[in-house]
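Ticket opened by: R.M.
Priority: normal
Category: complex prediction / small molecule

The reporter submitted a protein together with phosphoric acid mono(formamide)ester and asked that the result be attached to this ticket for the collaborator who will pick it up next week. Submitted input follows.
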Amino acid sequence: MENYFSIQDIDSLSNWIDEATAMKKKPLANKTLGIDKTIGLLFFNPSLRTRLSTQKAALNLGMNVIVMNFTGEGWSLEYGDGTIMDQGNSEHVKEAAQVVSQYCDVLAIRAFAKLENREEDYSEKVLKNFIKYTTIPVVNMESATGHPLQALTDAITIAEYRKTDKPKVVLSWAPHPKALPQAVANSFVEMMQRTDAHFVITHPVGFELASQITKEVPIDYNQENAFKDADFIYVKNWSSYADYGKTLEDNSWRITDEKMKLTNNAKFMHCLPVRRNVVVDDIVIDSENSIVIEQANNRTYAAQLVLKKILESK
Ligand code: CP
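Result attached by the on-call engineer:
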């Protein structure tokens, strides 16, 4: 595998889930695969899970890890072709990507949507320019429009906890005080389209995700109706795609115990971080049905599987 940019880079999801499950049982089985190889992790945005799980995954494979918080520590990057660089940006991505390639064997990047310009965010300027100019494989640690490491984790977690071959999975919007990108929701939708599940999205009117991503997935604008008989409730806030970056503080979409009682004893999932008692009530996230911590644990095995496939194909 050359890069892990989106879940389209997964050739066989069922094989990947089986391999990740085996890896979780014996995480050090390939501890020499990455010896003398270095991964560079570049963060343009904050992280807890992605940073530590990717680092742990690389260490489990014997790799060296270099981490850089680019925003505030790196030079401010220019992406435009032919730009006269007499303004704020100090370094062009052409040099930056090629220079990082001298120090590392694999590069992983986190660069969120800015939510100012939809066209620019959906062009994936940062990730695609690094992929264009670097000479080493690139892993997406959450870009403007996708979070494929999270989506792989979510597929592994659902496979681990499902009680039927075709569970009902609901992706529910929930309120949040800040405008958040659509990346996690986009990749989850794409992943569920490749999974054997009854999949439904529920959100307020005006919060439709990009139709090129949701395609034929049913949308139920009535959250309580969508929750009926669900086996998994996957919760995430995202800002509007149509009215780009607009948010909505509608407390009636918060995840409560009463709503969870409408489900088929559903597992509660969230990628974290989550704002308690804004997105979800304490009683739900602290319940036995909440699998958010095991979901976060599976981040390591999703990342480790991706790195293993990259190392094996080098
Ligand atoms: N879910 C997730 O990506 O968490 P972090 O933002 O903490 O990395």
